[in-house]
Structure formats: structure tokens, C-alpha cells
Amino acid sequence: MKLFIDTANVSEIREMAWLVDGVTTNPSLVAKEKRPFREIIAEICELVDGPISAEVIGLETDTMVAEARTLAPIHDNIVIKIPMTEAGMKAVKILTSEGIRTNVTLVFSANQAMMAAKCGATFVSPFVGRIDDMGGDGMGLIAEIKDCYQNYCFATEILAASIRHTRHLLDAALLGADVATVPYGVLKKAFDHPLTDLGIARFLKDWEGVPR
Ligand code: E4P
């Protein structure tokens, strides 16, 4: 499974660049940084050599395609994030035909994921955390999309998004999501276990009794 970091914070990305395979941003994450969007995206592309998602703001096909055409030249690793709407899928089809990679975002059903795959999306981003927040089954959606894609050998990669905690990360891996995009705090927690800390402390204590 590929691991992306879900942030527009350059310090977080710099710290985790040794680990991650890519980066996802969105307008809310970019807004937190109080810096120009393109400047942030260009800086991220210098830090991580993998897919970097940059989201369009327009809602019409034409405006999405126009924005995408100005974002894609920033760097070869740019992937254009397009919202899951009918207009958005028309844009995905056009961009795919131009060789511009896309990440279809705000996906909440397997039918939406199928539409994205039919249009040639590179990635599809089901938002598992937001589904769980409403009492739904985010991981169930990942499983459904996986089944649909396997039935027809769609090449679109399933990118588990809106990851809230380490259990989400593990479940995404168990279900065979191609990618999980994970917030900085959750990534850091994935290294930890209290028994590891206890084990290290005990080994060090016992080591004191080894003759030198
Ligand atoms: C994905 O690409 C999105 O940026 C992100 O995962 C959204 O997550 P949220 O529900 O925590 O905002």
C-alpha cells in the first residue's frame, strides 16, 4: 500500500518526506497555511517525489479543465483533484485524454467510484472518516469499490481518504486499498505501541546488569 500524507503544511511534509509516497491537499488544508496555493504546491513537489494532488475550485467542466491546465505544468508529479460531479467527470475524461492525471475527490458511494473509473481517473478518493462521522460504514465503501474495480479490472487506484485514526489506516490496508492518505498526527501514531516502549525500557534496565 502506498502511503500519502494529507496536509498542505510544508514542515510536516518535510519531516515525513523520507516515508511518504505522495501528498494530498485540499482547499481547506491550503487555507490553513495562509500562503499562496501555487507557491505551496511547487514547494511540496520539491520535497516529495510522488503524486501531489492539487484541487481545482471551479465547478463547471470548462473552468476545471482550464485550472487543471495551469496547475499541471507546475511539476510532472502534479495530480489534479476534481470533485465527484457529472461536470467533474467530463473534465476527468478530457484531462485523461491529454495525459493529465486526476484524483476524484469527495466520493461517498461505489456508484460514484465506478463513474470516476469509467472516465479514466487515476485515483478515486472515498472519504471514510466523513462517512463514519455520520454513522455510516466508511470501510464498507472501500470494500464495495474494491469488488467493483476487481470485477472489471479498472486501473483506477483506490485512495482511502479522510483517515481519522490508525485503525482506519490498518483497515484500509486489510481491504487492499492502493493508497491511504493520512494526516501527520495519525502517521506519527502508526509507529507507536506502549508495549514497544515498555520493552525498550526493560531491555535497557536489564542491560545495566550485563558485565562490561
Ligand atoms: C483527501 O484527499 C482529503 O484531503 C482529506 O482526506 C479530507 O479529510 P477530512 O475529512 O479530514 O477533511
Describe the structure.
The protein has 212 residues and is α/β, with parallel strands linked by helices. 51% of the residues lie in helices and 17% in strands. It is built from 11 helices and 8 strands. The protein has helices at residues 10-16, 27-33, 37-47, 61-71, 86-97, 110-118, 128-133, 138-152, 166-175, 184-189, 194-207; strands spanning 2-6, 22-24, 52-55, 78-83, 102-107, 123-126, 157-160, 179-182. The protein has an 8-stranded parallel β-barrel with strand order 1-2-3-4-5-6-7-8, surrounded by 6 helices. The longest helix has 15 residues, at 138-152. Erythose-4-phosphate is lined by residues 6, 24, 26, 105, 125, 127, 129-130, 161-162, 181.
N to C succession of SSEs: EHEHHEHEHEHEHHEHEHH
Helix fraction, binned, reads 40-55%
Residues in β-strands, percent: 15-25%
Q: What would you call the quaternary organization?
A: single chain
Question: Can you give keywords for this protein?
Answer:
8 strands; 8-stranded parallel barrel; alpha/beta
What's the SSE blueprint?
Elements: E1 2-6, H1 10-16, E2 22-24, H2 27-33, H3 37-47, E3 52-55, H4 61-71, E4 78-83, H5 86-97, E5 102-107, H6 110-118, E6 123-126, H7 128-133, H8 138-152, E7 157-160, H9 166-175, E8 179-182, H10 184-189, H11 194-207
Parallel strand pairs: 1-2, 1-8, 2-3, 3-4, 4-5, 5-6, 6-7, 7-8
Helix pairs in contact: 4-5, 6-8, 8-9
The structure holds erythose-4-phosphate.
